[in-house]
């Protein structure tokens, strides 16, 4: 692998937690109208300290807004990132299922793949989902 490849992998890993958190925050708000730290503690099975540290980083990066003991809300940038992450996740999960992977396995596998799939590969997956496999064209 080249140094460019390793840089991309490191960048993907760095954004993975942010993407997971903003997606979980968006889901909690959509389901319950509010997201609190305890929702994230339960969702990710981590400690309050872990959630608080991560929310602090997300706030510093302009993805969330919150105050101590108050709900967590997404900024416009956080909402965009959550939507992009959700879309990638759905494309990858649907693609895996279309390939014959069970729904349960596709749900788990897509959670990791979604963060590392390139734009080119994601576009190809989307083409297959909408137009079928290339040999069928």
CATH third-tier fold name: Arc Repressor Mutant, subunit A
Order of secondary-structure elements: HHHEEHHH
Q: Distance between termini?
A: 34 Å
Low-pLDDT runs: none
Major sheet strand order: 1-2
CATH superfamily: Winged helix-like DNA-binding domain superfamily/Winged helix DNA-binding domain
Count of beta strands: 2
Q: Supply Rg.
A: 17 Å
Number of domains: 1
**Please, how many helices?**
6
Describe the structure.
One of its GO terms (molecular function) is transition metal ion binding. Its main location: cytoplasm. It comes from Novipirellula galeiformis. It is a single chain. The protein has 137 residues and is an all-alpha fold. The protein has one domain: Orthogonal Bundle (Arc Repressor Mutant, subunit A), CATH 1.10.10.10. 72% of the residues lie in helices and 3% in strands. It contains 6 helices and 2 strands. Strands 1-2 form a two-stranded antiparallel ribbon. A hairpin with a 7-residue loop joins β1 and β2. The N and C termini lie far apart (34 Å). The mean pLDDT is 90.
């Amino acid at each position: 692998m080249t140094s460019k490849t390793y840089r991309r992998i490191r960048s993907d890993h760095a954004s993975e937690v942010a993407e997971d958190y903003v997606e979980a925050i968006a889901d909690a708000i959509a389901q319950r109208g509010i997201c609190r730290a305890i929702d994230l503690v339960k969702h990710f099975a981590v400690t309050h300290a872990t959630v608080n540290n991560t929310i602090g980083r997300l706030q510093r990066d302009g993805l969330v807004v919150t105050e101590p003991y108050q709900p967590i809300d997404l900024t416009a940038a956080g909402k965009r990132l959550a939507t992009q992450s959700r879309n990638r996740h759905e494309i990858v999960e649907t693609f895996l299922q279309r390939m014959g992977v069970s729904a349960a396995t596709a749900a788990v596998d897509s959670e990791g793949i979604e963060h590392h799939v390139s734009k080119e590969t994601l576009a190809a997956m989307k083409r297959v989902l909408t137009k079928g496999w290339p040999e069928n064209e």
